[in-house]
Amino acid sequence: MKFFKTFLISLVVFLSIGTYMFFISSEGVPSILADNSKVEEPELTEIDEADNKEDEKIVKTESDKLIEKADIVAFEDNEVTFLMLGVDALEDKNNGIRTDTIMVMKCNFDTGEMKILSIPRDTRLPVKGSLDKVNHAYNYGGVKLTMKTINDYLGTDIEYYVMIDYRAVKEIVDAIGGVALNVPRRMEYYDPTDGFRVDLKKGQQILDGEKSMQYLRWRKNNAMTAGYREGDVGRIEAQQYFLKEFIKQTLTPKNITKLPRIVQTYFRRVDTNIPIKHILNGISLANNLDSENIEMEILPGYGEYIEDVSYFIVKKNQMYKLVEEMGLK
Hints:
The chain has ten helices and 14 strands. The chain is an alpha+beta fold. It has a single domain (2-169, 231-325), classed as 3-Layer(aba) Sandwich (Aminopeptidase), CATH 3.40.630.190. A six-stranded mixed beta sheet has the order 11-6-1-2-3-12, with helices on both faces. Strands 4-5 form a two-stranded antiparallel ribbon. A two-stranded antiparallel ribbon has the order 7-10. The protein starts with a helix and ends with a helix.
């Protein structure tokens, strides 16, 4: 049972961070997770015992398969650095995938630290010899070219990637029965082009998967009656608040019994080249990771229009210093 719980906890930490980062704006300002107003522990609906036992069978079956197929091999220096890509639909690889979130993540299983460097999707850098947006690299050459482009630019040597379908956030939130959150204002928005709608009331409430996505994607009301005071900066602060509450509430003892359903999401919504032998080692050490010890940064730079195209221009000297300080090289 210890392995089972640790397996679930590791999935929650990695999936929650990855799915959250999909929604991060490409032009936000970095900050370390800040303390927000306390939210009382939510009264979530208990999952039916029979359903829970059935889900646990699924998890044990999948985890047993992993153990049988691979040896457990430790990460070098007990840490791993990988490229995290938030994508719109993993199953539509033949029709093109949009990498709307690009970040480098480092986990140290000795110190419990998690460091995240967000790379704005409009970052202007060399892609196959020409200056272009970093998120176009995937369209030109898939994960391989994306990793090469980022490694060449940052001066890093990242060999692993994790791709997460954004729909995972909705499924994971629903799996744990919702996230208790204090919505700071009335949020109303409708986009007729894709039918996306936001309809949230102000105040303390439990957001299900669909409403959580509304909260994460909201920027302003259609009537301009409300919006984040500092634009994308305010949006990122709201998202960080969501992430902190999500992880805290998910890892409470009362929710551990509900986590098996998350594993089904993992196998449907995540693609990675990290070897199973290393994943198993990471799982065994996942309890060492500290959800309160997350540092989030973004490439230093500024927005600029070049020939009527919006780009994010990186301040290279500051970038190299930041990459070194975060230990990503």
